[in-house]
Amino acid sequence: MERLRDHLLETGYTVDGVRERLGDVAATALAREELVPALRATAGDDPLGALIRLWWLGVPVEAARLPAAVLDQVLESGLVSAEDDEVRAEVHLQPWESDGYVVSDRKVRPGDPALRPDHVVGAGGASANLAQLVTRRPAGRALDLGTGCGVQVVSLAGRAGHVTATDVNPRAIELARLSWRLSGISGVDARVGSLFEPVEDERYDLVVANPPFVISPGGTLTYRETGAAGDAFCRDLVRRTPRHLSPGGQAHFLASWLHVEGEDWRDRVGGWLRDGGCDAWVVERDVQDPAEYVELWLRDAARQGTPDYAERYDRWLAWFEEHKVEAIGFGWISMRNSGTLDPVVRVERLTHRVTLPVGDYVDGVLDAIAAAHRAGDLSAARLRTAEGLLDERVGLPGAEDPMRIVLRQTAGLLRTREVGTVEAALAGVCDGELALGPLLNVIAELVGDGAAPQAEAIRPLIAEGYFVL
Length: 469
What we know:
Strand content: 15-25%
Radius of gyration: 26 Å
Distance between the termini: 51 Å
Helix content: 25-40%
Number of helices: 16
Strand order of the largest sheet: 8-7-6-9-10-12-11-13
Structural class: alpha/beta
Shape: globular
């Protein structure tokens, strides 16, 4: 594995190397499961093109395109097989960030055989989303719950002193160990078991999980389904996490939840966290109607065109209808064991583009939510305007006063909020020197807006990061 890693790096089989070689057109076509542009981009006799075809595209490669020493290495590893004058990859091996590599089962495409129940999926959009969300602060002890191909451990390399990784699928642990060896990572404590069972009495400074969050009736694919009813698995994951967090410890998950007729989804997901004793931030990033959702995950399992496609589709929709499901939400959940008797849970929808990685500033987001919740009398508070805040005004040409004033963040979550003239003026002068109450009174007199708003009205702007307490 060490020799193979050296060859991959020397050949340029890295994230940047593959991106540059394929180009935008081929990369975009691959996202649609179209191989032809990528095959054209990797034609020729060079080693990098051969590696991309072999490991990334999963097509046979002429043995002559691989250096003899390298061919011997990959054959010895068991990751490829040889037949006649061609070699074929038995796994999908993809480069990851920081010169890491991830080993998984081969990608499934339309027309391929049905997935095996213990299929190990590779690193995709969800894996990248979670890696972007996780805090960048160092952690003494970290837990990757449901490690799959081991990709989150690769992303955590260098940020955690000790890493434990678990998965209910023994085959996942086997391939994850290959990922870590190829990424130059050692010392990972890998255990087999469901949820927190393998670490029942242990606590961690950081817990991450890209769980099997697909909501389906009786699904059998281990990497994405658990057989639990509806969104119960994600609920149980969230409820069991607090007892495994060290003081100040954080947890970051991806999750799905149901939008049920007659119920606010915010109350549903917020209820999972209400009695956990942790500060929490829930963000819904996407919502799909039942038909769109079913089509997505039938495509994921390459079921299009199969004889039972329509029957599976119909059964899935019937289950949603029976349970009065109107939509399915997807997003992230961040938790922090703040050690307080007054935890705060914020649940919101953010579907616009945000600055990546969120992990660079997620600690600040949690700080702002907690500070706004726990601050007492805000009239005595000394606030500062957040850096990079813009004041945008819209009005008729020549008009003395604007029709709308919007505060816009240029970093982090890139929020926007329509405000009044007093709040806008506050953003222009708030430097932490004067208490909020007297400052609001002076501003109200200067702008002629009548009575000053109560300091309490500024609390949501603190929670959302427009002002820093």
